[in-house]
Amino acid sequence: MRIAFAAATTTFALLAACGGPQTSQANNASANVSGSAHPPATATASVAGAPVSGADAKAVLNERHEAMERMGKASKAINRQLTGSSPDLAAIRSSANAFYYVSNKGQALFAKGSGPEAGKTGAKPDIWANPQDFAAKLQDFQKAQQAFGTAVNGTDVGAIKASFGNLQKTCKACHDKYRMEMKH
Amino acid sequence: VPRQISHGNEALSRGRADPQPVWDLPVRLFHWLIAALVAFSWWSVTYNHTRWHIWSGLTILALLIFRLLWGLVGSSTARFAKFIRGPRTIRLYLCGRWSGVGHNPLGALSVIALLLALAVQVGLGLFAQDEDGIFMGPLAHLVSSDTSDRLREIHGINFYVLLGLIVLHVAAVLFYRLRMGKHLTKPMITGRALLDPGAQPMQPGKSWIALICLALALAITGWVAAGAPPLSPP
Predict the structure, then answer these.
(1) How far apart are CA B98 and CA B109, in angstroms?
(2) S-S: B108 plus which of A11, B82, B103, B191, CB 3.0-4.6 Å?
(3) Is A113 left (phi over 0), alpha (psi -120 to 50) or beta?
(4) Which residues in chain A have their CB less than 8 angstroms from residue B145's CB?
(5) B52 near A CB under 8 A
(6) What's chain A's Rg over C-alpha atoms?
(7) How many Cβ atoms sit within 10 Å of the Cβ of residue B92?
């Protein structure tokens, strides 16, 4: 498991290197996930696992919120590139890292205990009431993110558009069911 | 008006007792389609059917463009120039010294406010993108992402302006019905109403002009839906 994870991270680091200096931030972020000798307890937490609490729960909630915000901004930026007549592939690759980050963190971002009980969040308690369904939806997202990640490393704009559309569908499928209105 | 004279006095006096044309079919269709589409727009966006919400807004855009054109060249009661009146006429109306068909001088203000709020709402929606960056209004690519987000927020606020005007409109219709015994809803369905003594019935517009207005409205909406591409040939 750990080897596969490290391999995936290395692969990403290699792929990300093609994207230029803008990718370094997400690259570092992914390095933090696997690079630490003593990963924090929350790194392996899951939707159905042992609950996090206190400062750990708040940290997961904040990290999730920031990751989602980044992903939303990235999605809007990619939309704009793909609507234009000549999309900037480097810009799309750079934005794509925000999706990789969430996909890579996976269930750790939705550790049990990091819901509304931990603070202000858009995550519905239903997530933790339906851990299997949520995990399946998260997996759909991860698969779509991987396909998109492959597409953005190529130059076929049609393939990028199609895979991004599929990826957005998985965002929506989860949000429609598990995301609620959150006041900023 | 020659037609009325030719019918003679008997027809004239009967005309007061019989419902006469007040609203033409385009105006009535516009009214009820807008009512249904505003409700549908609210429902679709509330229940995450954003794609339908965008199409609903575009349909409202087509209807608004049609109504604007029909308000210039349509039937007498549809024309803005006929029903938009100044403060003096509004005062006359409030004193009970105004008679006519169609929008009364006070109601005209409500009609204009509703049309303007609706136009602003649709206009904002065209440039908006959703919070998650999954959907974009057809013109959202013409502004920056931050601007598009800001316009979506104003779109959400302006909905309450629109809602307030709709509540006022329905309250006014109920007031006329309950306090003044005047039915406004039925004429908006049948197109006919009993006229005030001496009032002229509606002069209908021409259906071929209505069709041209509709074709223009659809063409402009189609262009907007396509993201307003340059009009010169590529």
Answers:
(1) 16
(2) B103
(3) left
(4) 73, 76-77, 80
(5) no
(6) 16
(7) 14
Q: Are A31 and A24 in contact (CB under 8 A)?
A: no
According to DSSP, the residues that pair with A162 across neighbouring strands are: none
Q: Which two tokens stand for residue B157?
A: 């606020």
Percent of chain A with pLDDT over 70: 76
CA A45/CA A43 separation, integer angstroms: 6
H or E segment and range at residue B118: helix B105-127
Residue of B48, B129, B227 lying closest to A76 (CB–CB): B129
Contacts of B148 in chain A (CB under 8 A): 76
Residue B20 β-bridge partners: B193
Rounded to 5 degrees, φ, ψ at A52 are -90, 160
The structure tokens 């068909």 sit at B101
Report pTM: 0.84
CA distance B148 to B152: 6
Instruction: Tell me the C-alpha distance between A157 and A148, whole Å.
Output: 11
Q: What is each CA distance from B106 to A37, A124, B110, in whole angstroms?
A: 76, 48, 7
Closest listed residue to residue B150, CA positions, set B137, B163, B160: B137
Report pLDDT digits (tens) over B29-58: 999 999 999 999 999 999 999 999 999 999
Interval A134-179: pLDDT, tens: 999 999 999 999 999 999 999 999 999 999 999 999 999 999 999 9
> Among A125, A121, A99, which residue's Cα sits nearest to residue A112?
A125
Question: In a mutagenesis test of the B interface, which of A70, A75, A79, A148 is the best target, namely the one with the most B β-carbons within 10 Å?
Answer: A79
- Which three-class secondary structure state does DSSP give residue A40? coil
| Calpha distance B40→A133 (Å, rounded) | 30
User: What tens digit of pLDDT does each residue of B181-211 get?
Assistant: 999 999 999 999 998 888 889 999 999 999 9
B21: enclosing H helix or E strand: strand B20-21
Backbone angles phi, psi at B104, to 5 degrees: -75, 165
Closest alpha carbon to A85 in A19, A152, A157: A157
Nearest Cα residue to B99 out of B169, B170, B28, B16: B16
Q: Identify the CA nearest to A33 among candidates A113, A103, A95.
A: A103
